[in-house]
Specification:
The protein has helices spanning about 1-5, 15-25, 25-40, 50-80, 105-110, 120-125, 140-150, 160-175, 190-195, 210-215, 240-250, 275-285, and strands spanning about 130-135, 155-160, 180-185, 200-205, 225-230, 250-260, 290-300. It is an alpha/beta fold. It is about 45% helix and about 15% strand.
Length: about 300
Amino acid sequence: MLMEALDNRGSPSSGFAERWVAPFVGLKSAVALRQQYRNARFKLNAIRHLTGSDLNRWFKKLFRCRIVDKQATVLRKLTSSGGGLVRSGAFSGMKLDSGFVSLSHTSKLLGTYECELSKTIIAMQAGTYETIIDLGCAEGYYAIGMSLRLRPKRTIAVDISPKALMTTMKNAELNGIADSILLSAGSTHALINQNCVGRTLVICDVEGAEKELLNPEICPCLFMTDLIVEIHDGPGESSILDQLARRFTSTHCIEVLESTKRKSEDFSLLAPDLSPMELEVAMNELRPHPMRWLIALVKR
């Protein structure tokens, strides 16, 4: 019965992508998203005999597609009422271009994105750092936000995606700090060694490569560098976190932060134009499992 119900639900109409998604990600990306959504819904025959963890993974993929669908509608509401301004948090008032939409763009506009880090970021003083390096910068949320807040002499934004780097520079221009933002394609040990100039903060979100990249035996400058690292251990695992903590425990004060569940009632004032359900959708960061961050600040 469940399969039959899903079979009969249908896919987004051919006009959905053009009307709701294309204004934010471009028509080509919108059509691709629609096709991905359709594939997830209409390949049900292939999963009728799946059981256990395989079936569970398939339904998680379907749920993710549904959330992406709903976020496109919520994003339209947020941008029409508040433009591209971040509404709260450590980067409140920052402008974000909606031409590049990550899967967490709605939560970034609300200011709830990775809000577990807000207390740490707010505690940092302007003028503390000469250099900020953002490894895996995406659209520049942290590169731009940290630059606005901490006013370093320069920020190096690093990503393997040319589109991400272009959008980072566009966001830097929107916020009037393009002169202090440098772009680099790809994270390497040489890049870290060459750019850790003066007191430096490294922000790292490189999808699991943090263990290899943040190696002070290859990059000795890291012993004198503050770090904010998103950890990409699998569910129930801690090998990456444990190894990074061991590397820096003698030189840094170590703190581990864990992701927390967002509740619409705690953030309702941020978006009075959204229903509680829409707010829940907007705050959904589409994480496959709870996340952790390593905060490592040099002992001074």
